[in-house]
Write a structure and sequence with these properties.
The protein is an alpha/beta fold and 292 residues long. The protein has 2 domains: 160 residues, NAD(P)-binding Rossmann-like Domain (Rossmann fold, 3-Layer(aba) Sandwich); 118 residues, N-(1-d-carboxylethyl)-l-norvaline Dehydrogenase, domain 2, CATH 1.10.1040.10. It has 13 helices and 9 strands. Strands 1, 2, 3, 4, 5, 6, 7, 8 and 9 form a 9-stranded mixed β-sheet that branches. Helix 2 links the parallel strand 2 and strand 3. The protein is globular and about 65 Å long. It binds NADPH dihydro-nicotinamide-adenine-dinucleotide phosphate and ligand LL5AMS7Z. The ligand O=CC(=O)O binds next to loops.
Length: 292
């Protein structure tokens, strides 16, 4: 397959680009903080000096950026991909953003003759390392088919969801549910402990019942040990709750559970926990008010 460009060497981008390299793809990487490209370079990647330089070199470029401002910046700012994208190029944005951001990028890329696909992913650092992501693509069907060999390496399943915006919306719905579950799980762990039960036994009980799930199984043991080494940074989960709530506003969907979960993540951010794993929201529930 043609060389692939990759913008954004954060937790996810680095794991995904590394995976492409391991599977024989030629990859050119770029990151705002350039030093984060060093490890990829050691594993055979080339390094581009700007998003525009990457697009000029590569037929296909993938973006994996933190949030809407970051996703817009690599496209529209000086040195951004719009400076070089043309009818020979495809841009695939795999960041989690809202449908409006994605549509804005799509329109600009298409106006320059390029093709665009949004393809946010479900699955965290480990699935990214193992090529086990779930890819939620929407936009240009032709580009989707051309990039499938790379998606087959990055993920265990790809969905094509139709027009631009549908991938972004699906991802926000999924993460809204995940964030609400993490809040409920944290409350449950605290309730077990404060009422004299063993949190470890609670994990065993949960794992054998109808609400067993990989997230409780993976995050529970480290939460009990207060280990919040970031796989999915809490600030990004709160961004997803915020964007999902805005989607609820647009569609007049009442979302009291998600709104309460968003407050939990906001409180965690206000306590300086934004760069830790999203499971650190547990710390917010542990704090009890002093008795009067
Ligand atoms: N971690 C996870 O488990 C998952 C994350 N996601 C989503 O994937 C995306 C990336 O997440 P993740 O890798 O964890 O995040 P990180 O915070 O680890 O990485 C964010 C990346 O965005 C870059 N960036 C931030 N702001 C700008 C900007 N203004 N201009 C250019 N680049 C910028 C960072 O560059 P720099 O190094 O210079 O700061 C970095 O490369 C997010 O949208 C997240 O919601 C989706 C599924 C799972
Ligand atoms: O967006 C995060 C994830 O785990 O999926």
């Amino acid at each position: 397959m043609e060389e692939i460009g990759f913008l954004g060497m954060g937790i996810m981008g680095k794991a995904m680009a590394m995976n492409l390299l391991r599977n024989g793809f030629k990859v050119t990487v770029w990151n705002r903080t350039l030093s984060k490209c060093d490890e990829l370079k050691e594993h055979g990647a080339s390094v581009g000096e700007s998003p525009a330089a990457v697009v000029k070199k590569c037929k296909y470029t993938i973006g994996m950026l933190s949030d809407p401002p970051a996703a817009l910046s690599v496209v529209f700012d000086k040195g951004g991909i719009l400076e070089e994208i043309n009818s020979g190029n495809g841009y695939i944005d795999m960041s989690t953003v809202d449908a409006e951001t994605s549509s804005k990028i799509s329109k600009a890329v298409v106006a320059k003759g390029g093709s665009f696909l949004e393809a946010p992913v479900s699955g965290s650092k480990k699935p990214a390392e193992d090529g086990q992501l779930v890819i939620l693509a929407a936009g240009d069907k032709g580009l989707y088919e051309e990039i499938l060999p790379a998606f087959d390496v990055l993920g265990k399943k790809s969905f094509f969801l139709g027009q631009v915006g549908n991938g972004a919306k699906m991802k926000l719905v999924v993460n809204m549910i995940m964030g609400s579950m993490m809040n409920a799980f944290s409350e449950g762990l605290v309730l077990a402990e404060k009422s004299g039960l063993s949190p470890n036994t609670l994990l065993d009980v949960l794992d054998l019942g109808g609400i067993a799930n990989p997230m409780f199984k993976m995050k529970g043991p480290s939460m009990i040990l207060n280990n919040y080494s970031p796989a999915f940074p809490l600030k990004h989960q709160q961004k997803d709750m915020r964007l999902a709530l805005a989607l609820g506003d647009e569609n007049a969907v009442s979302m009291p559970v998600a709104a309460a979960a968003n407050e939990g993540f906001k409180k965690a951010r206000s306590k300086g926990l934004g760069d830790l794993d999203f499971s650190a929201v547990y710390e917010v529930f542990k704090v009890t008010k002093p008795s009067p």
